[in-house]
Amino acid sequence: MALQPSLRPLIVAGRPDTPHTLDFFLDYVCPYSAKTVITIENVLKPFFADGGKYGGKVKVIVRLHVQPWHASSIFTHETALAVARVSPQNFWPYTLALFKRQTEFYDIPASNLTPVQIREKLADIAEPLIGADKVADVKELLKLKSTPNGGVAVTDELKYTIKYGRQNGIHVSPTVLWDGLVAGEISSSWGEKEWTEFLDAKVSV
Hints:
Elements: E1 11-13, E2 20-26, H1 31-48, E3 58-64, H2 73-86, H3 91-100, H4 115-125, H5 127-130, H6 132-141, H7 155-167, E4 175-178, E5 181-182, H8 192-202
Parallel strand pairs: 2-3
Antiparallel strand pairs: 1-3, 2-4, 4-5
Pfam family, one: Thioredoxin_4
Protein name: Thioredoxin-like fold domain-containing protein
Domain Thioredoxin-like fold: 11-184
């Protein structure tokens, strides 16, 4: 599947040149996305690693999918994109860390925070992973530009992810594509058994 070069860190499992692709459209404040991320980490990444059952055959791309009815969703995705730019190898560890703390950014807990405070809090979650110096770089990327409506330094990447989801008619998170087509049977509750059955039926190389 297509992926602009600056978003290469969003390939989180398998080698980039593998013939099959799983695209996961995920939102950082979606509880079902959180369940899916745990499965990617514990089931799919070992499957798709070199030496794994499907090593060299399948890759996983995380497609950041803002759910605009959650007010802080956009800020979580911006911060993940900033981490991906500053410390590409830590995009996935940051994703795991953020999902573990996602409830702090639900509507009510975040309702009394300003956008600047939310961005600051999100960036601080990355510090144990990337260090204080690089967190400062992340925070710099999240500063509003000089024009009144110019966004932040990763707004173009955010626009790409949103346009990609809209173009493909993605409405809910998580939504999963297998080789570019929606695989509606996939559920966030799937474990190793269900994924093994699906992959055994689909992997053709």
